[in-house]
Amino acid sequence: MLRQLKNFFVDKQFSKKRDFLRSLSIFKGLGSQELGYLLQSFHTRTYHEGEALFVEGDIGRALFIVESGKVELTKRGQDGKAQVLAVLGPGSFFGEMALLEQLPRSASAHAAERSSLLLLYRAKLDEMLHSHPRIGIAIMTHLARLLSSRLRKTSQELTTVGSDPRPQSKA
Fold it and tell me: Each residue's pLDDT tens digit in the chain (171 positions)?
């Protein structure tokens, strides 16, 4: 009886989105209530195929999470042509630097197909850091680890590119 009442009052879409958030590494360790609060902080937006989410040079203000569809990240090369950096699907997130600093975007993002995205604006994260610090700190901790990992990977790639794999001859 209690289960039936609970199912009657529980919003299935809300539960589905909360479970989606739970599956993302950036929200690891957050409980159901925290994820519920977090979900209320997101703005949901649907983009049509080819529609720009943001353009390289725009000031970053939000983190994007792909709920459905695909998003293509591109960067203009020296020749002015867009080069594809990545195509991201459901569960992928990008634009996280906007949560840390409001600087120009380093790439552009376009919907590769009709896509539904969750947006977390920096102002909402700032509110969370004050009203629900555990949620804000969990997100910031994950971002710090993510950025550290990317920096480590980039350093390794630069080291590999900078080294000459050919054996040196002794003359």
Answer: 555 545 555 678 888 999 999 999 889 889 999 999 999 999 999 999 999 999 999 999 999 999 999 999 999 989 989 999 999 999 999 999 898 888 999 999 999 999 999 999 999 999 999 999 999 999 999 989 988 998 898 898 888 876 655 555 554
Distances 8 to 1, 4, 24, 63, 90 between C-alpha atoms, Å: 11, 6, 27, 33, 29
Structure tokens at 37: 């609060």
Terminal-residue alpha carbon distance, the chain = 87
DSSP H or E segment with residue 94: strand 93-94
Find the length of the chain: 171
Exposure b/e, 42-75, CB count within 10 A at least 16 = b? beeeebeeeeebbeeeeebebbbbbbebbbbbbe
Partners of 46 in beta bridges: 116
pTM: 0.82
Going 97 to 67 to 150 to 127, the CA torsion angle's sign is positive
